[in-house]
Amino acid sequence: MTLTELRKKVPELENYLRYMPEELKTRCTIKTYPPKTIIHQKDAPLDYFGIVCEGYHRVINEFENGNVFMIVRNDPIDFVGEVTILAGKPRTSVTIETTTACTVLYFSRKDFENWIEQDIHFLRLVSQKVAYKLYRSSYNRGNRLFYPPQHLLLLYFLRYIEDCHSNVIRRTREEIHEETGISVKTLNRTIRKLKESGLVGITKGKVTLNASQQEKAREYLKQGMY
Ligand SMILES: Nc1ncnc2c1ncn2[C@@H]1O[C@@H]2COP(=O)(O)O[C@H]2[C@H]1O
């Protein structure tokens, strides 16, 4: 795919590329990735900046004992590499994995550094994104240390429903484990208990919450009924 084709396909990109230095048009590269591909491994040297134009990715931390902790899921249009470069670090602090097919527009680290020196509009968009990521990360930091699993799970389910506009939680137990930090064993036990108390249903192995259960779950969280 050429840059012209990508710009046509993703018109929202125009806002980001409006004042891009002319010479970068021929120096950037476009890569597409299938779902579940590692785009970047934690601690690997970072010598590029990328604009994720299409597709969703997740930011994870993998530990030596095999556990994976999901930090966040990012939507397009997003950036990769901006945090490390602005922090003046040579290596990233996290791993990035695609969750759907993704298209990324890449620039060299040097070209990105020159670009933000010249283009205050773009620098502002990049800073906004970094600030947004920090804001979102900080907002719920510590939740998992101080709330019991049923609270964390109900919160997770309600957020999922709001973000994905679906009453069926289309996630495997393993994925929920990675996103909430709750062990699969505790997850199974907690989901069973939530089902017994009528707060959730199960259809074909997936958790569901109808409108009345969502209302009850909100009330449950408000009251701290545990
Ligand atoms: N807490 C977070 N929230 C959203 N995105 C993040 C978070 N931490 C890292 N990232 C993204 O993952 C990228 C990894 O490379 P960078 O650190 O350069 O830039 C990072 C961000 O784009």
UniProtKB/TrEMBL annotation:
Gene3D superfamilies: Jelly Rolls
CDD domains assigned to the protein according to its UniProt record, in alphabetical order: CAP_ED (cd00038)
Example GO BP: DNA replication
Alphabetical list of InterPro entries matching this protein: cNMP-bd_dom (IPR000595), cNMP-bd_dom_sf (IPR018490), HTH_CRP (IPR012318), Plasmid_replication_RepL (IPR008813), RmlC-like_jellyroll (IPR014710), WH_DNA-bd_sf (IPR036390)
Molecular function, one GO term: DNA binding
Keywords: DNA-binding, Transcription, Transcription regulation
Domain called Cyclic nucleotide-binding: residue spans: 31-116
SMART domains: HTH_CRP
One protein family per Pfam: cNMP_binding
Protein's name according to its UniProt entry: Crp/Fnr family transcriptional regulator
Origin species: Mordavella massiliensis
